[in-house]
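Predict both folds.
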Amino acid sequence: MKLKRLFHALWWVVLATGLPAQAGEVTYHHFASEILGRDYPYTLYLPAGYHETQQAYPVLYLLHGSHGNERDWVDKGNLERTADRLIAQGVIPPLVIVMPGSQSWWIDGYNEAARSAFLDELVPQVEATWRVVPQRDWRAIAGLSAGGYGTLNFILERPDLFAAAAALSPASYVPLPPRNSSATRHPAFLDAAGDFDADLWQQRNYPAYLDDYAEQGQIVPLYLSAGHRDVYNAAHHARVVHQALAPHQPELLTFEVLRGGHTWRVWRKSLPNALAWIGRFLKPPVALESLPPSS
């Protein structure tokens, strides 16, 4: 009888707090990158039941910000608990989340070829190592700040790869980053003389991909967000992104302004809505025997 009461008490705690009945698993990995000439680290979230099922899962690549690392989303972003809750509530399908580490702004910059390493090494490595469906309809990408910058660049350059995306406080400044942005001092954009290369910024920033993206037949549904007191005025720049894409995909674009600045408080608050948006477009897990071929 006491055991029964304890069970009911714990169940009501779960309901009251929103904690899921089952938790996913977070682990840390790396592989040798020929492009980078060093190990490529990434943090991995596996949904509850991953090891027991005979299924392949959708995958989300979740990018960190400038001078961040592959552990940020777990250590600061409440990623594990948020994903557990949304999966348990049926808001998003069970999915694998890959959080890579980069020393660049997700571009092929002066310090490393982060874009090439991501597309040509990390994605194939993940698809060869973990049970994820290697097709566009099961693949998404998101990121914050510099990771939002990378997200926009990736989806506009390669809409054939991603079914949905989210850019939180994207550091996609037009025409150039503000002086207080770390981009102006980041090794990715500093030439041999140590000067910020404005031409490289404009060559790598999302407007450079807009025309080609509009001419392609594939659209990537996009969630945008930013804080209303962002010190880099990210809300304004996200609104510019929204205005640029709205004529092309009016029903597959959303923008949310939150109270706060360029901080983890805003990104933690934005993450559930970003994941919910992405979950609308990702296909659910599939049985291994019906796994589609790579694309």
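Second protein follows, with its predicted structure tokens after the sequence.
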Amino acid sequence: MGQEHVIELMQVAKQFDGKYAVENFNLAIKQGEFVTFLGPSGCGKTTTLRMIAGFEMPDAGKIMLAGQDIGQLPPYKRPVNTVFQRYALFPHLNVFDNVAFGLRLNKVHIKKKLPDGTEVEEFRKYTAEEVFTKVTKALKIVDLDEFEKRNVTTLSGGQQQRVAIARAIVNEPKILLLDEPLGALDLKMRKEMQLELKAMHRKLGITFIYVTHDQEEALTMSDTIVVMKDGLIQQVGTPTDIYNNPVNAFVANFIGESNLFNAISVGANQIKFLNQTFDVPHQFPDNEKVDVVLRPEDIEIKPLGETPLQAVITDRIFKGVHYEYNVVVSKNELIVQDTKLFDLNLDVSLYIDPTLIHIMKKDLVSNVYKDIPLNDKNQLVFDDGLSDVNIAQLLEGSKVSDTGFLVSNKNVQYDLKNLKVFVEIPFNAIELFGDPDMGQLVGNVVQCFYKGDHYQIVMRTESEEDFIIDSEYAYDVGTKLGMKFDTSKIKIKAKGDLVDYEV
């Protein structure tokens, strides 16, 4: 680990009930850096923070600090402190005593010389004067230097949060961990505290590792953002890099408003989408399908006929400093931000600066699952339900007998019960039903974002299996739906040799 790195996580992994909460996590954090773990609920960001704090132990990998692997050390032996969303203050103690609580428990490590010149190590408690000095300094940093005698129950939410931060920094940790600390505050207070936390970070000069699902918090405060999904890092970069150069559709959709489109590369340095061809430098082969992201502020509304891209304004929202418009181009809906006022149902032209078009390698178009077993009826066995599948695709020239056995072209029979297979289910092979009983599986909507001409829905079952579905309809997050599979589109491949299943 380089000397400039205060902590480094190397191939860190954590499982719960056999499922990865964090997988192959690699990150080096510099001294004094403000790093934010950003992602939706369940992406592994808090689990990663808890492993750094010592509240969870990694199943694999190393957490290195000053050349030492601290991954298995208890929390009290780590030079880190944590600020939680729930402040956990002592209601019977005043502000000063809440902040001083940890100091009074800790001991100071000192070296002492004996009369014979021998040097020995000793531990002693902080003196009352030392406690007073440290607590006063911490309260001054969080702008509560005149609140020492106040009972914490009489403070506002923002003031209580400052007390919790003061209690964490008074021990002078090398790293301060913050687990969604502003989540309990109202919007106005949260925005104020974002700026105050950034100012505190500059004053202290220590490393902050911050967890949030709020993209605005991440963009406002961070030096580095780590975007996570399903326990995996999707992208690491500065707020500007993450916003302007997302590596995939998930990051583009999660960070800020974005218009996502299916596109295709046509010829040298040309991309086609919205039935228009744009001159955009790229390195994709001809006819390769790609994803395109356009930020709403990068699209200009022009008078009708000024550009070939014609649209109609269907909705308008005033956002204070700009208007946010919904415009429709053919069957595609776009979000556009503009400071000018335009009428609804107005026919207009759109101008897109080709230099502001961001092209990304296309995400997967299928759900891929490993180790899915077959039952005695040749059905795929998911934790929450079953799906029929054509098993004849496992062996070229085979068929299925009346008794349900797979029969090869040499008349060899196979009983495939408990055979594990790789499964590929295209996004368009799943139909959603408002009545959950109509589906083979039941799940809840955890994500829904617009892809230009359709919506992409992420469904999560009770066993936390995720399915991505292309749909012409949008659904609210949390909606319970049934999922039905088009078995003709499901592809399977045997894991292992079918010889073991000969009858």
